[in-house]
# Entry
Amino acid sequence: MLVVAAVVASLALGSRSLPLDQVVGALAAGPAPAAAPGAPESAVIVWQLRVPRTLLGLLAGAALGVAGGLMQGHTRNPLADPGLLGVTQGAALAVVLAATAIGADGVLPPQVTVGAALLGAAVGALVVVGIALGGARSRGLTDPLTLVLAGAAVTALLGSLSQAVVLADATALQAYRYWAVGALTGPPGVVALAAPVAAVGLVLGLAGARALDLLALGDDVARGAGLRVGPARVLGVAGIVALVGAATAACGPVAFVGLVVPHVARALVGPVHRWLLPVAGLVGAALVLVADVLGRLVAGAGEVPVGVVLAVLGGPAFVVLVRRLRLVTL
Amino acid sequence: MLAPPRGGRAVRAGRVSLRVGGRSVGLVLAALGLLVLVVAVDLSRGSAQLGLGEVFSVLAGGGDRGARFVVTELRLPRTSTAVAVGALLGLSGALLQAFARNPLASPDVLGVDRGAAAGAVVVILAATAAPSLAGPLAAVGVPLAAGLGAMGTAVLIYVLAWRHGVHGTRLVLVGIGIAAALQGLISWMLIGARLEWAAQAVRFLSGSLSGRGWEQVAQAGVALAVLLPLAVVLGHRLDALVLGDDTARALGVPLQRSQLAVLVVSVAAAAAAVVASGPVGFVALLVPQVALRLAGRAARGRPPVLASAALGAVLVVLADCVGRTSLGLDVLFTLPNEVPVGVVTSIVGAPYLMWLLVRRARERTV
# Structure
């Protein structure tokens, strides 16, 4: 229900708000090409601008929501979030590097963008998990402070490197400035390529949900119950990387969806991952769409990218989560 | 934790009394010597290469006219700003880490830097929107806004982290959340701005020392001159705070007032550094811990303020020198003419933070 409402709002609201009956009428009339003569304006707006954007929002939100659920499940850490953990910055750096190395005027072939983002996301994830694991064999990943700070350190490092590259390439700044904050107006070629990658990630993630429920009992118990722990973890990490890489390639780094959404989903359906992950996907899609609509509405004629809206809303949400944590460390 | 007082002598002036130990004095002197050397190297490098001897003779009042011009007009303002910024960051970090009793507490990790930057960006963008006011706004408005932003952020973090007392871990985590939200706000403001203004603000946000003149030196120098003596006195009061709140109270230290003063001085120093150079990350995190390790038992379990300030200056001057001259790496990569100092310190400092995390976690599991 929430998702449907968000989709309708996303289609109808914007710098030119359309009444609902016009939206429904335009949708029912079928796709309208951009330059079709005589087509009503509302049809062009809906099909050319709002529909792609809404689909991208659904895709990215679902991908990030599920990725967050997977990450919190695998690390057993309530503060895990791909955006905080350097995964998105890794993808961003890889894309920026590829842009300066290959791209003319900052324009990249979509295959390169998606590939670079996936690679970067994988490297970022491995570095952070490596640090947290290297820190403590027994409890590194579940210690919220270590994981979050390792993510902050990796994010700072990768962000600085991106910044150095962008400063070298003054023309890239204009493109980077929008891309770096996360927006739902990505190039269509990239989006088309990212969608199947995200779909693969979704399948991997949902397939691993049962294993996650066992892993939540601890590695030893899971092993005793007949689960092969190593392959299950590899599967989970591959799912996270595919989801986050695809989402980042399509709309830039979007933080905090992966952090907040699993908590909402947990409050709705409880901690069982078979239910939690799909619900997290739906809630994530709704959250991203609502944030995007907010960003379109508050700025009047211009717009605020969804990544910025989510960062401003997500920071306080993170603080609330921290205050609820029962801290035993230190 | 606490080494028994050994050696050293007490220096008393009115109500203020300090104990001066041999090793800490030696450390400060060594750091200052290193600073002189690094400053001389920094002054000698650039598009016109000078010998170290030439630099020293210019600083002593001699040297030929060409060398005098290059050193005193072109390079000295920038290098002096670097020294002041580094010292401010070092002392800010030293106080904050002692205050929170946590090596992870520093103005950049906690988002105090980001608060100052957000305040400054508001005024930078306002100044470009109203050019007639640009002069007074840049001179008074930016420092004021940065100070207010930093102080507001610090208070916010402190209040939000308060739950039956301030917990070190919660303080750091809350700070990270606030920093992320502030970063979002800054991006928001940048996107609304026109490209050339945004470019100026982005340069500021990456922490750059390029084009710093004597006005910046004066601003940062005044801040340093006021805050450093305060920090030294407060630092000694912190010796009691390191023992824990109850013990400190029993020793007759005015607890709340001392904590408040430490916080204010630390935040003010961080804000002054941000005004002079933009946010330069990781210096305030890294330097106090280095100083603490070097001082050993003489530091009595908290980062020494003076040595941190001196080493902070060394680090920032060195990082700026590397960023300015690229160390000949431009043969390998296409680097910009100049890498901002904040980028250099992040590339050095972030791995240190990772190492610190690994080590802390190891210590706890052992």
